[in-house]
């Protein structure tokens, strides 16, 4: 069983990749700011803002909470169309 890394080891391992991804997000948002037109009312931009807010919170499970921001609500009947499609094959 592997020995878990301590916080400093995790930061040492992840820092450059996290830095690069944050710069990529910042660059994309800068491109949106410079582009003509407006996407303020676009739900996708709202989701991005919600995800960024989650990143700044001290509460854990950030990845799970961000995944929920970008996920569709659960539909108990989701399998229905696939069952019909399979029966017709």
Explain this structure.
The chain has one domain. The model has no long low-confidence stretch (mean pLDDT 91). The longest helix is centred in the first third of the chain and has 28 residues. Helix 2 packs antiparallel against helix 3. With 89 residues, it is an all-alpha fold. The N and C termini lie far apart (46 Å). The chain contains four helices and no strands.
Query: What overall form do the CA principal axes indicate?
Result: flat
Instruction: State the end-to-end CA separation.
Output: 46 Å
**Domain tally:** 1
Summing up helix and strand content along with how strands pair, one would put the structural category as mainly alpha
Task: Sketch the topology as an H/E string, one letter per element.
Answer: HHHH
The main β sheet shows up as: none
Provide the gyration radius in Å. Answer: 19 Å
Average pLDDT over all residues: 91
Query: Please, how many helices?
Result: 4
Which segments are poorly predicted (pLDDT under 50) over 5 or more consecutive residues?
A: none
User: Strand percentage, roughly?
Assistant: under 5%
Which range best describes the helical content: under 10%, 10-25%, 25-40%, 40-55%, 55-70% or over 70%? 55-70%
**Number of E-type strands:** 0
């Amino acid at each position: 069983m592997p020995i878990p890394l301590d916080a400093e080891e995790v930061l040492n391992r992840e820092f450059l990749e996290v830095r690069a991804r944050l710069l990529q997000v910042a660059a994309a948002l800068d491109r949106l700011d410079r582009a003509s037109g407006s996407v303020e009312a676009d739900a996708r931009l709202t989701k991005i803002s919600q995800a960024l807010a989650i990143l700044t919170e001290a509460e854990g499970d950030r990845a799970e909470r961000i995944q929920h921001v970008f996920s569709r609500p659960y539909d108990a009947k989701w399998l229905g169309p696939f069952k019909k499609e399979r029966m017709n094959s």
